[in-house]
Design goal:
This is cysteine-S-conjugate beta-lyase. Helix content is about 40%, strand content about 15%. The chain is α/β, with parallel strands linked by helices. α4 packs parallel to α11. The structure holds pyridoxal-5'-phosphate (PLP).
Length: about 400
């Protein structure tokens, strides 16, 4: 290993949401924070050096993203995911959640229906509801410790109940691939079938692929838009180096829209909001991470997979009351805590005040998941061990 992912870096006092918000969120600050989805690893040195060089220039006036920025995104998507894209398809958003919200606002109207698949990262629900659209929840199915899409149910859900006719108020499908919090990296078959339903019914797919670089062995990320020309023409794909390279605070994402009309509508929204400029450091970081960060990423993937294997074994051997759903992607692990006999606020209280570990409560991802929590393993092994030890001891005291 050339990179030291074991290094423990103190993030307290940096206005880190994950570390410095513990007191507000959990009521105490002696928490091992394993909640907010960013990592405790330092970004690749090449990225830091490039930003340092720019920082030392001293003038941070208005800038634009040059041709090399777009070319780097084209190359990254090709080499990591085998998808050929044109540089002109690439546009910008400060973040993926803002991109989801802009898509909802641009391509649907109040009262239109937008499909999501719960359990799901909570902003998928709020960008629909807070914008006055109607959420259609095509709930995922959990079977044998594995989540699946329920596409038969989806066919029913997009129809008007009495007539069986397609409900033309269903305008958009918000896909999370890989999926947060279940860790699924959707298969080609699932994506093709979902894509067929959307193409047949003129439903625009907005695919959040922010976690697409964190994939475990035996799995492969498939951008849904890469599966056919038809799918490319009805998909907005959102990617960012933010989760992968510890860059989430730099607010820079690439939005890939092959269809010219859809792209120009999206760009129109960006321009209306006057947020298309981005920021100097985010642009530099994206470009350098995608151009020079592959070796670092390969090592990160090995490290995260070791973390994951460590966690799986730990729960199996020492905390069998909690069952992790093994993720295929993402550094987020969805834990089934039903064996503890606690739900909702009681479960939250258990993790915060008994284990002193900061987790995300499952009921925020789905009303059915009150006995689940989400645990972030994007941290040095020593932090992971400390978190697991605290959970084990608290479970033993129950
Ligand atoms: C699936 C998913 N989408 C989007 C985001 C946030 O993206 P951004 O910070 O770019 O808005 C997260 C962060 O946890 C996420 O897990």
């Amino acid at each position: 290993m050339n990179y030291d992912f074991d290094e423990v870096i103190d993030r307290r006092g940096t206005n880190s949401s994950k570390w410095d918000d513990c007191k507000d969120v959990f009521g105490r600050d002696d928490i091992v924070p394993m909640w907010v989805a960013d990592t405790d690893f330092k970004a690749p040195i090449e990225v830091i050096e490039a930003m340092r060089k720019r920082l030392e220039h001293g003038i941070y006036g208005y800038t634009y993203r040059g041709q090399s920025y777009n070319e780097t995104v084209v190359d990254w998507v090709k080499k990591r995911h085998g998808w050929d894209i044109d540089s002109e398809w690439i546009t910008f958003s400060p973040g993926i959640v803002p991109a989801l919200s802009m898509c909802v606002n641009t391509f649907t109207r109040p009262g239109d229906k937008v499909v999501i698949q719960s359990p799901i990262y909570p902003p998928f629900q709020s960008v629909v509801e807070a914008n006055g659209r109607i959420k259609v929840d095509n709930e995922l199915i959990l079977k044998d410790n594995h989540y699946h899409m329920d596409l038969d149910k989806l066919r029913e859900q997009i129809c008007i109940q009495d007539s069986g006719e397609f409900d033309n108020r269903v305008k958009m499908f918000l896909l999370c691939n890989p999926h947060n919090p279940t860790g699924r990296s959707w298969s080609k078959e699932e994506l093709l079938e979902l894509g067929r339903i959307c193409v047949e019914n003129n439903i625009l797919i907005v695919s959040d692929e922010i976690h697409s670089d964190i994939i475990y062995s035996g799995h492969k990320h498939i951008p849904i838009a890469s599966l056919s020309e038809e799918l490319a023409q009805c998909t907005v794909t959102c990617i960012s180096p933010s989760k992968t390279f510890s860059l989430a605070g730099l607010s820079t994402s690439a939005i890939i829209i092959p269809n010219k009309r859809i792209r120009s509508m999206f760009n129109n929204t960006l321009e209306t909001l006057h947020i298309d400029g981005g920021n100097i450091f985010g642009s530099i970081a994206l470009e350098v991470a995608y151009r020079n960060g592959e070796e670092w990423l390969e090592e990160l993937l090995v490290y995260l997979e070791d973390n994951l294997n460590f966690l799986m074994k730990y729960f199996e051997e020492k905390i069998p009351q909690i069952v992790p759903i093994r993720p295929e992607a993402t550094y987020l692990v969805w834990l089934d805590c039903s064996g503890l006999g606690l739900e909702g606020e009681q479960l939250m209280d258990f993790f915060a005040n008994e284990a002193k570990v900061g987790v995300n409560l499952g009921s925020n991802f789905s009303r059915r998941c009150g006995s689940f929590v989400r645990l972030n393993i994007g941290c040095p092994r020593s932090t992971l061990k400390e978190g697991l030890k605290r959970i084990e001891e608290a479970v033993n005291r129950l």
